[in-house]
Amino acid sequence: MKSRSIGNILRVAEIGLGCMGMSEFYGPTDDSQSLQTLERALELGVTHYDTSDMYGAGHNETLLGRFLAGKRDRVTIATKFGIVRKPGDYARRIDTSAAYVREACEASLRRLGVDVIDLYYAHRLNPETPVEETVGAMADLVKAGKVRALGLSEVSAATLRRAHAVHPIAAVQSEYSLWTRDMEEAVLPACRDLGISLVAYAPLGRGMLTGAVASREQFAENDFRRMSPRFAEGNLDRNLALVEAVKALAARKGCTPGQIALAWLLAQGPDILPIPGTKRIKYLEENVAAAEVALTDEELKALADALPPGAAAGDRYTAEGMRGVNV
Q1: CATH number for position 25
Q2: Closest C-alpha to 325, from 168, 180, 139, 169
Q3: Confidence at 124, pLDDT banded by 50, 70, 90
Q4: DSSP E strands: which ranges in the chain?
Q5: Residue 45: how many CB atoms within 10 A of its CB?
Q6: Residue 313, in any domain of the structure
Q7: Model confidence over 165-207: pLDDT tens digits?
Q8: Is 225 part of a structural domain of the chain?
Q9: Is 214 domain-assigned?
Q10: Full residue range of the structural domain in which residue 72 is found
Q11: Is residue 307 part of a domain?
Q12: In what residue span(s) does the NADP-dependent oxidoreductase domain sit (predicted)?
């Protein structure tokens, strides 16, 4: 694959791998299967692996640590802190105090089995803690050689500018796809003004843009999407209708709807880095192959017109989850 820059600090393959589903949120997990998928990703040229200390309450970082043994110099690891929760419990609190930044980083380094984290994000921000305090503590980690680059997730443009004034921010990670385009209004322009890359999570619309979703009933009982407003009765049918344009173009081009969705994102600019998540080799290979799908200007416009900002029915998260975005 071609490579892209993260804030002019890191260089990674243009399509990364989101590892969250290997630990929870999307039904049953299997460590053996996940490790095989991680190995195959590296064979295919994937170099950007995204995790968090809250995925499986540390399990995901530990899993990545097993994979990293003997290949640390070939892999860029991004992890996050700030969301504090217990294993198997969706209840959470946000801690972005300076003391917790230091504590969380040390714990992540141990679980990952590394000396330095390539890209360290504040996963969410606690509005009661000034972002200057949080980023100041993160900057100290850079000075100490424990972290190479800093990131923020789901922040507002105004907060991003305040943070960047304390220490250069290399990346903002936000949900971005054909059915989640709200960051195009203010966050993405701010990123471009400041030279910050945008790492797009859920670039396949949590599976919706693959064309494989037909009903909530196909999801396991512990699948996050059973609680997601966009997959709720009433909203789901409206959102499925949006995907028809993606499916039609995929049929004409002889590729999959998911590949169309990823190709559209890649075409939005060299500063966009999608990290589609999967725990299965089959879907990993499909996602990576999207880098070879070329869309014409006319096709890009048709997709953007068919799925304009705000077209998706329902919020991205529950009311509780939405309180943590655009802070």
Answers
A1: 3.20.20.100
A2: 180
A3: very high
A4: 3-6, 10-13, 17-18, 48-50, 76-81, 83-84, 93-94, 117-122, 147-153, 171-175, 197-201, 272-274
A5: 14
A6: no
A7: 999 999 999 999 999 999 999 999 999 999 999 999 999 999 9
A8: no
A9: no
A10: 3-206+259-293
A11: no
A12: 14-305
As given in the structure block, the two tokens for residue 106 are 């040390």
* Strand 48-50 with 17-18, pairing: parallel
Place 90 in a pLDDT band, splitting at 50, 70 and 90.
Answer: low
Residues known to be catalytic: 55
Q: What is the pLDDT of residues 248-265, one digit of tens each?
A: 999 999 999 999 999 999
What is the residue-averaged pLDDT of the chain?
95
Residue 37 CA to residue 32 CA, distance in Å, equals 9
Token reading at 5: 């820059």
Residues near 301 by beta carbon (within 8 Å), at least 6 away in sequence: none
> Which among 3, 121, 101 is positioned nearest to 52, based on CA atoms?
121
DSSP state of 147: E
